[in-house]
Amino acid sequence: MVLKAFFPTCCASADSGLLVGRWVPEQSSAVVLAVVHFPFIPIQVKELLAQVQQASQVGVTVLGTWCHRRQEPEESLGHFLEGLGAIFSHKPWFQLCRERGSKSWSCKATHWQGPTSHAASGEDQVMLIFYDQRKVLLSQLHPPAVLPDRQAGDTTASAGGLAAVFDTVARSEALFQSDRFDEGPVRLSHWQSEGVEASILVELAKWAAGPVCLLLACLLSLVSAASACRVFKLWPLSFIWSKLSTCEQLRHRLEQLTLIFSTRKAKNPAQLMRKANMLVSVLLDVALGLMLLSWLHRKDLIGQLADALIPVADHVAEELQHLLQWLMGAPAGLKMNRALDQVLGRFFLYHIHLWISYIHLMSPFIERILWHVGLSACLGLTVALSILSDIIALLTFHIYCFYVYGARLYCLKIHGLSSLWRLFRGKKWNVLRQRVDSCSYDLDQLFIGTLLFTILVFLLPTTALYYLVFTLLRLLVVTVQGLIHLLVDLINSLPLYSLGLRLCRPYRLAAGVKFRVLEHETGRPLRLLMQINPLPYSRVVHTYRLPTCGCHPKHSWGSLCRKLFFGELIYPWRQRGDKQD
Amino acid sequence: MEDEQSFSDICGGRLALQRRCYSPSCLEFCLSCPRITLRSLTAVTCTVWLAAYGLFTLCENSMILSAAIFITLLGLLGYLHFVKIDHETLLIIDSLGIQMTSSYASGKESTTFIEMGEVKDVVINEAIYMQKVIYYLCILLKDPVEPHGISQVVPLFQ
User: Fold this and answer.
1) What mean pLDDT, rounded, does chain A reach?
2) CA-nearest residue of chain B to A521?
3) Please, are residues A30 and A168 in contact by the beta-carbon 8 Å criterion?
4) Which residues of A524-535 are buried (b: 16+ CB within 10 A; e: fewer)?
5) Measured between beta carbons, which residues in chain B are less than 8 angstroms from residue A533?
6) Which of the residues A28, A130, A158, A514 would you substitute to probe the B interface, choosing the one with the greatest number of B C-beta atoms within 10 Å?
7) Phi, psi of B132, deg, nearest 5
8) Disulfide engineering: A567 pairs with which of A4, A411, A450, B131, CB 3.0-4.6 Å?
């Protein structure tokens, strides 16, 4: 089998020395992590490797020698290098050699038979694969299909060859801590040997994050304790809280903030990304809310809105009255039952009249309420949108009431009709057996049943028309609310930090690798360049999207149509934890 | 060493297959697809602009013409960037894996690498397309849960 040697590009120009890294026997590949330069004392090298092995649980050993000279190595150097092979015994022993200033590399891997016969036996073909150590260290592999029952811990032994390479480099951070300015006994060359990278701002932020997180976590726990107190659990209040989407949104945000500022460290990279995504999402939300607030105040829109609200409500009520008058006449040329029509129409008209009086009663307080609501936008744009959705729901409450009345009437009628239709045919619904059975009725039962059936059939168009009109209105309002909720969900769940990372540092999120064949000469080993293949945007969004409230309609189009036909009430927004109707 | 042969695809366009052997353990196959011709480009542009002009004579709104130009440009860019494949390369590296690269006409390259451990088999599959039967090469991937099952069939050379 061909042996593979993963060589970091930063060591390609380093001076001669020993190759240090990990040998993976299952894939016959050697991952070179660093180069130890002459002069060194073998005992100290072995000590250093033992330390690193203990700190990182990676089997770091000496893999071979690296030679970077002007011309072909002299005989004495050759023997010296081979002598090293006897000190640090490793099967197979790699000997990489490169002429300074040229692109030709040579590579040998030899197996020692034992101390008795020093003849190198069995030289294998070696393939050199160059990789960028810093990028591989920072990147995170996303395998194509992650099974739900597989833990993150068992990816090392059973993983594919490339995941093992990534894992080795990522866990060997202890080896990369010393740079060439250190006075230690052993001189190493790796990606950080020019100096350990750090940034003052990052260090300060890390130092300040501890106390700040603690303080904020205390504050948030106080707030959540206050909101969980018994007063809010009494029946009317708890019912209202569960129906308003604003409260749901606030609760969601509170949970997210608690998670971000909790003092526990993130256990794995996925949790860290989730925290970062939540933080960026909250910050963006607040920024958008403040922009909205400043825009509203600059144009004094709140005053204009308050002035325009009452006339708009009046106008809507007037339109509804016109609609009812039209229904009470001969709508679309259909002939209605006069008496029922008048009853229903007057009932709904009176309802509208009550509603208008209520709105007029509230009119002096509208501006103050709107001003306070506008102030809540500084908690975030999503909160403002939720409040808007709630205001729409409150203002169109009468449409909701009409829909419920119409639906209940229609539902009763349909049930009555279906039962009497069965009687008409001589059948009965058997509750015990849950099926339709034949039944012999008395004559007077049949007579009254048929009479009632005829009455209901002839009253059907009237009720059906009212039901249709109010259902359409209700669906319109539900669509508008739905769009607002969709926007809120989008802001809540979009993983902006991950998308930004994919845009600016594409090597951090890797879907895989890609290889490029470098210049090749016959007789020399094959050289490949391994680059990171970044994750496509759709997979980034899919993997890192944040969980939302989950207020999505649970039924399909078919069941929706069925419910509409039979007059059952539709509840499009099922909050988390509510029972299904 | 290089080797070039020419074939034709199912629509009659000319394909060129290039075979390169870098070393005993590394082989590369490069398939070039027929290029976009000036004739087809002119035909599509003329149809779109004639339709837009027809709409313009009906509606007397000059926005339609500028919208048509915009749509043609965007459509062409989108087609070159997302749909039209210029050439595809298959790189086989012994004991490492198989890499498939598609380069689009706008220069975009999309690469997929499959490790050798995941490959179960390489087969020639038949498919019925319109009125004829076509053969295509595909790679069968192992299912991580079931050792004898197949999780994915990956066709090569779109």
Assistant:
1) 79
2) B22
3) no
4) ebbbbebbbbbb
5) 111-113
6) A514
7) -125, 170
8) A411
- pLDDT-based confidence at A122, cuts 50/70/90? low
* Closest by Cα among A161, A142, A162 to A152: A142
**pLDDT tens sequence across A455-513:** 888 888 888 888 888 888 888 998 998 899 888 888 888 899 999 989 998 888 888 88
pLDDT of residue A229: 75
CA distances to A34, A53, A193, A345 from A48, in Å? 12, 9, 16, 91
Query: H-helix or E-strand containing A449?
Result: helix A443-493
* pLDDT at B47 exceeding the cut of 90: yes
Chain B residues touching A157 at Cβ < 8 A: none
A42 or B50: which carries more pLDDT confidence? B50
Instruction: Work out the pLDDT band at A441, boundaries 50, 70, 90.
Output: confident
Contact A147 B144 (CB under 8 A): yes
Q: Which residue of A has its CA nearest to B20?
A: A517
Inform me whether the C-beta atom of residue A527 falls under 8 Å from chain B C-beta atoms.
Answer: no
- List the Cα angle A413/A419/A424 in 5-degree steps: 115
- DSSP per-residue string spanning A489-511: HHHHH--HHHHHHHHH-GGGEEE
Contact A359, A309 (CB under 8 A): no
> Cβ–Cβ contacts within 10 Å for residue A553, how many?
14
User: A72 pLDDT band (50/70/90 cuts)?
Assistant: low
d(C-alpha A581, C-alpha A570), whole Å = 9
CB-based contact, A145 to chain B, within 8 Å:
yes
Pairs of CB atoms within 8 A across A/B: 56
List the one residue out of A493, A291, A279, A248 whose CA is nearest residue A381. Answer: A291
What residues of A are in contact with residue B96 (Cβ under 8 Å)? 4, 127, 129, 161, 515
* Rg of chain B over all Cα atoms, to the nearest angstrom: 21
Name the nearest CA neighbour of A515 among A145, A203, A129: A129
CA-based radius of gyration for chain A:
38
What are the pLDDT digits (tens) for B23-46? 778 888 888 888 888 999 999 999
If you measure CA to CA, which chain A residue comes closest to B145? A147
Mutate to test the interface with A, among B93, B103, B150 (most CBs of A within 10 A): B93
**Are B117 and A161 a contacting pair at CB < 8 A?**
yes
Pair of tokens at residue A125: 């073909």
Nearest to B25 among A28, A127, A129 (CB): A127
In A407-485 the beta strands, taken as DSSP E runs, fall at 427-430, 435-438
* A50–B contact, CB cutoff 8 A: no
Asked if A162 has any chain B CB less than 8 Å from its own CB, the reply is: yes
If pLDDT is split at 50, 70 and 90, which confidence band does A335 have?
Answer: confident
Taking alpha carbons only, the member of A368, A401, A402, A369 closest to residue A387 is: A369
First to last CA, chain A: 64
* A65 neighbors A40 (Cβ within 8 angstroms): no
- Decide if A515 and B96 are in contact by the 8 Å CB cutoff: yes
Structural tokens at position A76: 């004495």
Of all residues in chain A, the one with the smallest CA distance to B28 is: A517
- What does pTM read for this prediction? 0.78
Mean pLDDT of A374-402: 84
Closest listed residue to residue A468, CA positions, set A419, A526, A403, A519: A403
Indicate whether A543 pLDDT > 80: yes
Q: Which of B99, B117, B145 sits opposite A515 (nearest CB)?
A: B99
Residue A464 touches chain B, beta carbons under 8 Å: no
Q: Indicate yes or no: CB of B25 within 8 angstroms of CB of A2.
A: yes
CA A376 – CA A362 distance, rounded (Å): 21
B144 → chain A, closest CA residue? A147
Which of A517, A527, A531 to substitute to test the interface with B, most B CBs within 10 Å?
A: A517
